[in-house]
Amino acid sequence: MLAVFVVCALFALLGLILGYSARRFKVEGDPLVDKIDAVLPQTQCGQCGFPGCRPYAEAIARGDADINQCPPGGEEGVIALADLLGVEPKPLSAEHGIEKPKSVAIIDESKCIGCTLCIQACPVDAILGAAKHMHTVIASECTGCELCVAPCPVDCIRMEPVKETLATWRWPEPKAVGQ
Amino acid sequence: MNLFKLWNFHGGLHLDGHKQESCKAPLAVARLPERLLFPLQQRNGEDSKPVVAPGDRVLKGQVIARDDHPFYPPIHASSSGIVRKIEDLPLPHPSGLTGSCIVIETDGEDAAMDFAGIEDYRQCSPDELRRRIYEAGIVGLGGAAFPTSVKVAPGSDRKVDTLILNGAECEPYITCDDSLLSHYPNHVLEGAKILLQILKAERCLLAVEDDMPDALAALEKAKQRGGFEAIQLVRVPAIYPTGGEKQLISLLTGREVPTRGIPADIGIVCQNVGTAAAVYNAVVHGTPLISRIVTVTGLGVKQPQNVLARIGTPFADLIQQCGGYTNEAERLVLGGPMMGFDVPTDNLPLTKSANCILVAGRNELIGEKRSLPCIRCGACAEACPVNLLPQQLYWYGRSDQIERALDYNLFDCIECGSCDVVCPSHIPLVQHFRATKGKAIAKRREREKADHARLRFESRQARKEQEKRERAEAAKRKKENLGTGKSPEILDAIERAKLRRAEKSAPSSEGAAQIDGDKQETVVPPAGAETRRESAKVVHTETPPGGPESEAQAVPSEID
Prior knowledge:
The complex is a heterodimer of chains A (179) and B (560). With 179 residues, chain A is mostly helical.
């Protein structure tokens, strides 16, 4: 009889503790979405079929999207997602595009007519300008998403690979000698 | 001197010095080259801004480029001549990348600016001395080219008690510091005194390796003249890499610089002996850093020797002065055989940090041998002067486990190459570590850029959301007002209009007929503007007997 009482009391106590901590330590938002979002490259290019990296992260978390739909993240990104979600990595899905070298948008300012269409298209506000005034890309803010290229009515935006400087240069892997 | 207690550091190697080749010849003074090249970029930063234009005549010691950043001191012309152009040229950097350089065609006159030195620097404040060091363009001459004015400003929270002057030239082949100490011991000792004054440190330890007898003798002799009591000469064993900053500090003081810390954290500032001499020249003579001693050596050069050369001199000129290339010449290395790097051309300018030009002959250096798998013998860990586990770092680096490599303190690696030398499998470990470091840095940068882009994307989304909400609200308000006229102001106005119409229609029916037929403007009676405004003002407080403005508002809803 006493045993039953003790067990019941213990259950009640633990229940209270659990109930309290569920309220006290409640996690706001979905931590899985945040974790996925942290792995994505934040190019905001929409090549995955979702309007931005966070919506894609949400879709992955819901199970609506696969992990191989992000070309800017590349193979490395797929592997990171696979590690995070505990699934097998798979090759990048071709229908969403191919992995390209990092590039930055450049506006040919002599051709720009100041239509503001690219400004509206840029997901990270990296284009500066006003109606009927020349626009320019803030290169350090550009994610290379290419979303500004298509809307331009005079085709004055081109993508250029990011140039290597002394600050970005890295030692290469040693060459395998005689192998 | 011999009573000084030396500590030790882990690992290290006894290497074949190859010092005799270059130090047995007397110090030569380099000829004035036809062209001097000055890269605008210093230490991987932004380009300094040129303050001269092509066609300008410059004097020796004139500032030709500067940057306001404390990390990038001004660049000075090292001889007089005409600025020919500012163009992209190959840089003396392992990447082989090009960068903007100022090209000066010398005129042979070597006309100098008026340099104003201060004989009695004891009156100067530390800040004034630091400013002079900055203006003289002095950076660490030991190889890292860290700006000296920054290094001697450790901050008020760090108390520096010891200045260490590094004359321990541990790397094989290099003898430029040996040569400097033998020829200019006074400059180094005087420079040490100035640095002691800036740092308010009590003592200076001048470390010289025990295989540099000429330098030691010269220093002893100079010291006997008196006035250098705070400076102590210390003979250190010639073990590679004694000349590494952290290794020398361990050896001399037994203190260890913390990971991610700087020597000033443990009360020490370490400077190369050449830097001390440059400080002396800058403060007492007012001359900027426009020349240095460089060792030109190796089997590939006919007369290996030390050369006092102008900064900006192309390597080709220096090698030519040393008799030119021999038939043996195969590799051109900037720096020593352990920590130097191959450069593809001799058309590169001498920089402040270049201590050695090594023209290696066939099989003179540890070449690229076929590397075999790691047998985990642990020889590298025994040789490592930083107490790392190179075999683990290699393991994690090869398998792209960068986080793990960082856990094993990859970034404490000083890339001295000791592990490469002892590896029985000839694995180029340091190259692997450099590549892994590069990957780690690139990854961190990418992450930072992604976080920044996320922030910008999210704030843009928030702004668009808000704009949408505001537009919707505005539209809703407009619709409500138009449709039902529920807004109290409008109801009031309607009331007033009704009243007014009633009043007007009593005396004559003409006005009412007009309202029905015409637009609101026609309703406005040609009353005085003053009365109109007055009535508008009181609209909200009470209901006036009617005014043209309230009438105008009311009319459309009545028509509806």
